[in-house]
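Notes from the 1:1 (GR / supervisor)

We went over the backlog. Supervisor wanted to see one worked example end to end before approving the batch request, so GR pasted a single chain during the call. The sequence is below; no edits were made to it. Supervisor asked that the structure be written out right there so they could see what the output format looks like.
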Amino acid sequence: MISSVALCINHSVKVAKLGIDRPVIRFEPGYNVLIGPNGAGKSTVLRAVARCPFCTVEGSGREGLKYISTESLNPNMGGVFDGWEQMVQGIRALFLSHGQGVADGLLNQAHAGEAAILIDSPETGQDQESAGMIYRGLRKMAERYQVIIASNSLVFMQGGHIIDLGRDTLPRLVASTRELMENFGATQRSREEL
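Structure output shown during the call:
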């Protein structure tokens, strides 16, 4: 399990300018969700934890860590595969839509006793029902592993330890979603009156 990451100067600058007042981010056991507006540094934090030799990872460290990025889930990634698992997923993705390929890639990940799994934007290409299915799978996974995701989807924020890399991201997102739904309802009523 990863308890915290102390970001190096390179990564802390990329995150700090958008709301983090100190370069240490703490994680909880189970399900963790990095939230914030686009450009807040959600993906930056995941990459820093997974790959940066200058960022200090406390806890189990990088051993037993699996990093899943939007690039590795992209059915059209092409190029050379890093291993058998990626090759199989790439071939399967040829017969699926983008969203189905991402869901298939997430749900069919091989696990070899990882202590922590980092997932960047699991909502990529998903409709509401598929996002819910993936969310439930991640919550189930969080019973055995620590799961840390980066997401701006309300579906994936439910019941997680939320780490806000922005400024009051969750209340603003809920308010804008509520406003959208109210406007959508008003538009539907206007059409029905015609």
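Supervisor's comment: The two ends are 58 Å apart (CA to CA).
Batch request approved.
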